[in-house]
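re: that chain from earlier
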Amino acid sequence: MEKHQAAEGVELLSSAKHNQVDSRPQQACYDPHHHRDVANPTSTLGTFVHVMKSALGIGILSVPSAFKDGGLVFGVLGAFFFAMLCSHSAHILVSTSYKICKKERIPVLGFGETVEKACSYGSPSVRTMGTVLRNAIDWYLMLTTVVVFIVFVGTTLREVINFRTGWEWSDRTYILLVGVPILFITQIREIKYLVPFSAIAGFLILANIVISLVFVFQEPLSLEGRRLFPTSATSVAPYMGVVYFALDATCLIFPLENQMRHPRHYLGCPGIVNLNYVCLAVLYSFFGAVGYIRYGENVRSSIILNFPTENVLVSCIQVLSAVAVLFSIGLIFYVPTEIAWKKLQRRVPKEWSGWAQSGLRLGMLALNMAAACGIPHLGTFMGLLGSVLNPILALWIPIVVDTVYRWPNGFGWARWRLLKNAACGCFGLFLLITGAISSVENIVALYK
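^ sequence. v structure.
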């Protein structure tokens, strides 16, 4: 009897060891990408269109003015440097999220969840910081507004239509009118179905660039009197404020990657992110350089202001800009509504889910419309908020995620990754300080 029980014990122990050995390769081979359950995934091309549109906006029309501050050589090199920096931040966040998902057998993580999970590998104090950062990121993204974009569309259309027709309609009238198409656009819940809107918006911006180049190349270009480098350190900050913040699209990194049909195409070589930022760096460099060469020190904050206002093509550029922003609002609106819905979803009965989501989107749009109609010069104050929070979100948070997850022995030879993160952190501090100073100066100038 004892021998029989002993034999059974040995057999059970052997079976347990066999199962334990078998479970290791299963855990090591877990691929989060194969376990995602996305109802309407976005194609690789559709994601590329979204990524391109998220970092290509009407801000490109201000790049020639930035080159006036930075100079031609510094301007071109800076555009490629900032594009590389934005791409690097995306790589850090998405690759770390993938490693965490693989280690913990989770199919997908969002922005705030990745930060919290990465901090959970640190000391108790770091884990507490992770929870705080996750809540701060979620609330910041959820409170991201489209007010500035609504105001831009309304006021731009007012300028063009009133100038061409002699009407005297107010800004609020146009804001309420554009609220009608925005109402339908913001009810689109899937990123996949927003691809045509991003494609149209990107095409309209490219059309703006082509029309602007028509004015730029009307006369031969000359390098005489054009600076190659900034004249002082103070002129570097305005350059960076335009180019870097025009390229940054950190808030859309995870929503776009998480909805892909083939998420492996997002990073890597060439990868959507890398290819997108190479194209944008070339486009920004070319447009900024030729615009500055054409108008020199007389180039205005938006190159459109250098064109003759009576020309019909100038009105076309303004209208195309307004329509491009209008079609971009759906993608911008997706992030805050998606986060807000995740917080609300568990409290809503399943049968009321569709109506509740529509009501949430309608309510958030109503708040944005009320702010657009009721708060003058809101865009200036939003610029101050963005200049402070964007460097934190786009540089410091990826650095924190990478540093905490790799701590203490994952920084490579001579801990070069830690040194790189420290340098990026100092640069982010410089961006924060200079951006805040520039925004405060704009507010002071506004009320003088």
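The radius of gyration is 25 Å.
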